[in-house]
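W.,

You were right to be curious about this one. When I first looked at the sequence I had no strong expectations either way, so I just let the prediction run and decided to look at it fresh. Below is the sequence, 886 residues in total, followed by the output.
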Amino acid sequence: MTTIEGSRRSDGASRDEIRGAVDSRLREDVSFLGNLLGRVLRESGGPELFDDVEAVRAAVIGAYEGSGEASLERARELVDALSHDRAEQVARAFTCYFHLSNLAEEHHRVRVLKRRASTEGPASDSLPATLDVLRAEVGQDAAAERLRTLRFHPVLTAHPTEARRRAVASTIRRISDLLDERDRAENDVTTSETERRLLEDIDTLWRTSPLRTTRPTPLDEVRTAMSVFDQTLFEVVPHVYRLLDDRLQGDDAGRRPAVVPAFLRLSSWIGGDRDGNPHVTAEVTRKAADIAAEHVLLGLQRATARIGATLTLDENDTPASAGLTALAESQRLLDAESASQIGIRSPQEIHRRVLLFVAQRLEATRLGDDQLAYASPDELLDDLRCVQESLREAGAHRSANGELQNLLWQVETFGFHLAELEVRQHSQVHRTALAEIHAGGELSPMTEEVLSVFRTIADLQKRYGIRAAARYIVSFTQSSADLANVHELAVAALGSAEAAPVLDVIPLFETFADLEASTRILDEALQTASVTERLAQTGRKLEVMLGYSDSSKDVGPVSATFALFDAQARIADWARENDIELTLFHGRGGALGRGGGPANEAVMAQPPGSVAGRFKITEQGEVIFAQYGNKTIAARHIEQMAAATLMASSPSNERLNQEAAVRFGDLATTMDRASREAFFGLVKAEGFAQWFAAVTPMEEIGLLALGSRPARRGLSVESLEDLRAIPWVFAWTQARINLAGWYGLGSALQAIGDVDVLREAYASWPLFAAMIKNVEMSLAKTDDAIAREYLGLATRDDLAQRVLDEMALTREWVTKTSGHAEVLDGRPVLSRAVRLRSPYVDALSLLQLRALRGIRTSATSDPADADHRLLLLTVNGIAAGLQNTG
């Protein structure tokens, strides 16, 4: 296995032409890692294993470049002829190759970002460039105020879409670090040593089973998320603030107080989201919060001690302010012995002494020592600001505005809780619990557990501050009573309204019907005492969450896109009319069928007034590690999203979206009607649910230990109503059909029929353009020939033909609309990446089809048999190859 090769069947480009278009440094990295993997395969399985892998590779490339069924048939025969053991080894080899290729692409992306930063300066979508635009449109003061109130709020979720084991991810990270070392190698000896260590880790990657033997627990998921915080976010977030501040202040950077606010807030559902997950209990929520607090407090303690150790400023040159002298005395009264010990090491360095004592108090906070512990993050901030002001008064501006400012930003961003732990529960669970309470008598275990959650939230707020756990999301909110029920349960759990925790209850509108009813429900909520009381306490701030995946599964991706846009516009208007400071929380997934795609483009396509400088979005599964796993990429992502959040509310962008929505309103109505008719014609056909389960690995995906949450809320394959959106999308992705991301768009565009009108909409309506671009990406990852193989697993030619016809129609009309000869022609880097990977994904698809045929024809259904194991191995591999799951 040597290098990435391949081409799209449809455009006639040769492998060499495509490879030539790829940056030479990326080609070199992929070739280098592929050669090392080849050596490992020969050492592990002998030349026979390597030869079998190469034979399959050559066959699928030939089939990909060839035409007709004969080419694919030859590749299928070769795959089917492999023994079970060899088929597994081949599947694992291609999976390892994709992991290494993904790593090489990430490595190259970092290389490009660093090169651009050093040679080209800030990009057009950077925060400084965005602020320049805002200043020109709204003036200096208004732009500064918008920056002051900016909020970008990512929410980490445990939705099970990360197919890699944690052990596999850790090995990949070590290989990534070694690639960095290889780039910095200064001589042949260093290069040789790096290569030896790379071979060792690639051998480990090859020998590590890609399959989890048990499902991860919610706390396993919490600890996995903590690795992102430890490795990147804790350091990256102040780095982003600092870069912006440096650019804004120029030569005054470091000499003047920072002007950039801590605009990022982080939340997590991991350990708090109990909707449909019986494994998330009140005790799990408590432990999840404790784990997060341990990580952030340890990070703050170490950073404070490190900065304190460097503040060796003599009091004669840098005298203390009166406030700092008073703070030092209060510290001595708290713990005279510790203050004395610190003073021995820093006799004339009061700023150093105070900050080192602060570090000790942070350690006490982490360990639960009430005598020295800080009562809240605000108390810590007061101490740090006292040190900062004293340094400024003494003229030590660079010490005041340097690393100490970074620490202040970290405390402002993460508090003592790291990420606000958000609780989510289904509205029906609340109704059932209240009915039991009102009926009197002994409560069921379920209701007792519901009440325990509120007691846990109250305890967490006392220990880590209100920000640690105040947001409570109600899934399937269908009335204002669903919001009031949460407050009533909190009072029931704690005994009184005074003892109940502070709660911001967030309605989640998920289904198409709920989106349509959203403003009516919100109107009713304004008549509810518990809601209005909380609004008064927050200055009339309200958060509303919108679910992208269930609405898409309800009415199809096209109708869901328009329904979500309309709902946001209505809710934004409602908020304006009722003097509400609205934050819309977007429950977007990583996959296109769940609202995925480039998030910064999505922000810019929101209705006027719906962003207002605040954007909250879920980040899940493989997306968490893709966006935040590398420091350089994480910094770029955060800056892009923050800039888009500012720019979305600019007068020019809001005017663009408003005018386009009005101008193309009839077009949207026609497309909505036609797409929904096409979508319902498929999913409401008799026997569709059983057919879907037969032509995709939907049922088998449930056997893969991806996450702690079950794939279903309870119903069987007789109904799709209760199937979660993740396996719905995941299954179509695995079958190389990606139906959840595009089905119905071809019919919708054809219903318009006027190419000029469609191209005009594409050029001037951000929402429409984003939808077309996302579908292009989805179609690029489909494959007609492979799709036919999956659709042939069942004997419903009518449904199979519907899918193939709509796929062809969508491809035809999407390219007509974009003006491209092929999908993704306008995004050459992404297009090349997809083309280069596709034949290798074909190999895994053929192996998966072999396994599915074996499972479908078997007299028994043993999840431990060879066919099931091969299928699960290929699920991992295809997810890695497509860089996408659910």
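Here's what jumped out at me. Confidence is low (pLDDT under 50) at residues 2-12, 591-595, 711-717. And, maybe more interesting for your project: DSSP finds 40 helices and nine strands in the chain.

Coffee later to discuss?

I.
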